[in-house]
């Protein structure tokens, strides 16, 4: 566990671009976003607005599946088609305009109805991070939901009605392991413990715990031993640094400068 190396010019430029969201979900959250591959079924006005909201912060890639052609109605309800696209594949037109929002994002499209794709290439959906479907009738939605449930890919089905909308989520389990409390006190004094804490530490026989349950140690004790080994060896008596800068009230330029330091 060594201290992170200084950020490269490329990384610092990305930090400047995504500064606000990095403060919200950190480097690891951004990395997870950039590794994502989202599938959108039907490039409706609602569908393209959803994609816009994840293209701007830097989703890794997206694929639009839509066998429809652009109509005059689309031009009135969808910002990501234009009158020159009428009669052309809606998936192609939406993909081109969405990609203009963020050069870091990759996008592709399939000019085919999802029903035909499920019949001819059912494994096409296996490797997506999530599938988002809009304006899909039940006879097409149910086979898609069954397929995605079998392969463990989350499904979001969205429909809008004027100013109201509904969202149905299909996912076996979704857990959140990291919270962002308003205030935290991370100082546990474990490098300079007070007498009571020192006595508690000395009452725990780490060696016996390791020998007793060496193959089934809980993650906490594995991490505790790793920290101890670091402090005693390459840490030179010092605890490891996490390498991230907490959120704070500051100007963006000063915050980014601190990150680079």
TrEMBL record:
What is a single cellular component term in the Gene Ontology annotation?
A: cytoplasm
Task: Fetch the Gene3D superfamilies from UniProt.
Answer: NAD(P)-binding Rossmann-like Domain (3.40.50.720)
Identify the InterPro entries for this entry: ThiF/MoeB/HesA, ThiF_NAD_FAD-bd, Ubiquitin-activating_enz
What is a biological process (GO) this protein takes part in?
A: protein neddylation
A GO MF label: NEDD8 activating enzyme activity
Domain THIF-type NAD/FAD binding fold residue range list:
18-174
Q: Which PANTHER family match?
A: NEDD8-ACTIVATING ENZYME E1 REGULATORY SUBUNIT (PTHR10953:SF29), UBIQUITIN-ACTIVATING ENZYME E1 (PTHR10953)
Protein's name in the database: THIF-type NAD/FAD binding fold domain-containing protein
